[in-house]
Specification:
By secondary structure, the chain is an alpha/beta fold. Helices cover about 30% and strands about 25% of the residues. The protein binds S-adenosyl-L-homocysteine. The site of S-adenosyl-L-homocysteine has 25 residues, from strand 2, helix 4 and strand 4.
């Protein structure tokens, strides 16, 4: 990549961040720093590079999409991600959202090292995401696993934070169980192409769950054992 292109995308990233702040969406300084550092153009297909900083989802492979930046922002903020957290993401897709999380929980210059485990059901997307994360320098902080993430990852549980980036019928019970007490989970709930809402679940110190509706959204469908039978 030549210098001109690099500077162009840097300016685009700054413009998008200002836009999200003006719209009142972006508030958390950790999320702002991550949005300014992760190059979204490296996570989209080459033909969509020039749209990398338009605030919209974009097609990736296998009929899936990379979420819109404002949605990544809303989910990261609702999770209240902090350095040191162990995070589970269900639905790796391009790897972009996992990189944003890694930038917050395991910043390069910090002693505190959290980690992101992310599960993807489509094999070609596992490869796509790994390559994107390797090229951008996040593969040491993000572990990409091929499988059905609706069952979680019991071998790495409990998690401080869990995000699901595909819409399912309900929050899968294994994910609730694998969430640490005091932890937070965000997930879109609703039918394919229908009305979906983004849900925040807080697990308190006594192990009780508190649900909050964060508003309407539109995601691709969660598949697997606790997903929709497509
Ligand atoms: N977070 C992604 C967005 C991906 S879209 C990004 O930043 O690009 C949702 C992804 O969830 C798709 O790639 C889809 O293949 C995947 N998915 C759907 N059901 C799944 C399941 N049960 N386990 C793991 N991944 C799943």
């Amino acid at each position: 990549m030549n210098l001109g292109e690099k500077e162009f995308f840097q300016r685009e990233r700054e413009r998008l961040v200002r836009q999200l702040e003006r719209e009142g969406i972006l508030k958390d300084p950790y999320v702002k720093r991550a949005l300014l550092r992760v190059p979204r153009e490296e996570f989209v297909l080459p033909e969509y590079k020039r749209y990398a900083y338009v605030d919209r989802p974009l097609p990736i492979l296998a009929g899936q999409t990379i979420s819109a930046p404002h949605m990544c922002c809303i989910m990261c903020q609702a999770l209240e991600l902090r350095p040191g957290h162990k995070v589970l993401e269900v639905g790796t897709g391009s790897g972009y959202h996992a990189a944003l999380c890694a930038e917050i929980v395991a910043p390069e210059d910090s002693e505190v090292k959290g980690h992101v485990y992310t599960v993807e059901i489509v094999p070609e997307l596992v490869e796509f995401a790994r390559e994107n994360l390797r090229r951008t320098g996040y593969l040491d902080r993000v572990t990409v696993i091929h499988g059905d993430g609706s069952k979680g990852l019991p071998q790495f549980a409990p998690f401080d934070r869990i995000l699901v980036t595909a819409a399912g019928p309900d929050v899968p019970s294994p994910l609730l169980e694998q969430l640490r007490r005091g932890g937070r989970l965000v997930m879109p709930i609703g039918p394919p192409h229908g009305i979906q809402i983004l849900v925040l679940v807080e697990k308190d110190e006594k192990g009780r769950y508190h649900y909050k509706n964060l508003g309407g959204c539109l995601f691709v469908s969660l598949r697997g054992e606790y997903g929709w039978k497509l």
